Amino acid sequence: MRTFNIRHRITIIVVAILSLASAAFAQTPLTSAAHIGLVYPLSSNGKNAAAYTNHFSLNIIAGLSKAETGVAIAGISNIIKDSATGVQIAGFSNHIGRTSHSVQVAGFMNHVKQDAGGAQVAAFMNLDGSLKGFQAAGFANIVSRDVDGTQIAGFMNKARNNSQAQISGFTNITNKGNVQVTGFMNKAENVHVQVAGFLNVAKKVKGVQVGFINIADSNDCPIGVVNIVKGGEKQVSVSIDETTTVIAAFKSGGRILYGILGVGYNAKNSTSLYALQAGIGAHLPLLSHFRVNAEATNTFMTSFKGDDYNRHTLGIYPAYRFGSRVEVFAGPTFNYVNCERGVGSDLVNHYIWSENVGDNRFHGAYIGAAGGVQVRL
């Protein structure tokens, strides 16, 4: 009986010790200085690879781990369930829960489910929950929440908010942004600077928009040919200059800067010339009904017979407004002419400087004048 009690007590003690050891083991994180493998579970961490934190990982095909603190390299993919710091390089893709002070390089895509911190470079796409740092992709960077950093993409950048810069080949999209630069279109709610090859769209612009077409609810300084500003000014004008070229133009912009787009015709000589004009201008208010409009324009004219006439003009036009809509203007201009085979060179005969370049080109500069009337829409 006494022997049974002793054995019983020993058994209880052994079970307790094993239970404590198991609990202690369960609470101890699994770490590995180096993780080498082919593909899960054929690796040094085996079937428990998803529970390991590794300082170095090298997988021929794909690697699976809980966390990486140093360098992780995979022929196809790194799959890191929790977090990563250091460098992750994959031939195809990196898939990570979250990163901090990390660099990811992938042949196709980097995907960080939660917060990404550091730099990302992918041949095709970076896809993140949020970003603090830098990302570059051959096609697109897409962040579902906020970006505190710079996005550079061959085609598109998209984020909820971006406090620094978006640079792309085709389009940038964000709600609140700082700087957007693209080859085709920028779209934002509130933004400081937008530069686009064709179109900028925003609600409130604190700085400038530069593009062929600029659209905004409020923007004092759009730089483009067509500017649709909700609180701005739009006018149609008809003007004539010293060459008797008549131009009908649409002028649109903000309180200060505006764009000019016009078409016209010159029939001074036997050869009729058709004109296309584009430029930018600035309103300089002086009195309630009197202001000065400064305009820089380029007028291209052709007879559609293989020749061309280009005139770059800087004009200063004092303008007086009758009522609230009709404005007359007139003033001096400085003009530089560049034409082919002398077409249009005889539209004026008071050049202050001129020269013939070879047999085909004529260059000249002169002082002229222009005036007209414009109506506010």
Word description of this protein:
7% of the residues lie in helices and 67% in strands. The chain is mainly β and 377 residues long. It has two domains: 30-229, no CATH class; 234-376, Porin.
Report the biggest beta sheet as strand number plus sense, adding barrel if it closes.
Answer: 22 strands, mixed
Q: Low-confidence stretches at least 5 residues in length (pLDDT < 50)?
A: 14-27
Structural class call reads: mainly beta
Please state the average pLDDT score.
91
Shape: elongated
Alpha-carbon distance between the two ends: 111 Å
Beta content comes to over 45%
How many domains? The number is 2
* Cα-based radius of gyration, to the nearest Å: 34 Å
Number of strands: 31
The DSSP helix count reads 1
Q: Give the helix proportion (percent range).
A: under 10%
Quick synopsis:
7% of the residues lie in helices and 67% in strands. It contains one helix and 31 strands.
